[in-house]
């Protein structure tokens, strides 16, 4: 079984600012994953919102799921344990105003 093609990374170019992390993000609304690169200090919630928008998802409270773990939206990616090459799934944790 072949894996779907992955889009080129989204985000700032490497070598500018804080260290970065490049991950593959999957969305429940499309079978094709996308690659994203963010500074390691980016909050999980901000990265998840950017990824969700890139997939055409709007509204809700997106975060990432890594394996069985739902990542804390308020933590920086590095503090949430996100590493280069990780595969993350966009999930909506609900809530809101």
Describe the structure.
The chain is mainly β and 97 residues long. It has one domain (22-34, 43-97): Ubiquitin-like (UB roll) (Roll). It contains 1 helix and 6 strands. The radius of gyration is 13 Å and the shape is globular. The model has no long low-confidence stretch (mean pLDDT 87).
Layout of helices and strands, plus pairs?
Layout: E1 7-10, E2 20-27, E3 30-39, H1 44-54, E4 62-66, E5 69-70, E6 87-92
Parallel strand pairs: 1-3, 2-6
Antiparallel strand pairs: 2-3, 4-5, 4-6
Task: Outline the low-pLDDT stretches.
Answer: none
Computed structural class: mainly beta
Please give the domain count: 1
Broad CATH class: Alpha Beta
Spatial separation of the terminal alpha carbons: 43 Å
Characterize the quaternary organization of these chains: single chain
Please report the total strand number as a whole number.
6
User: Biggest sheet, in brief?
Assistant: 6 strands, mixed
Assess the beta-strand content as a share of residues: 35-45%
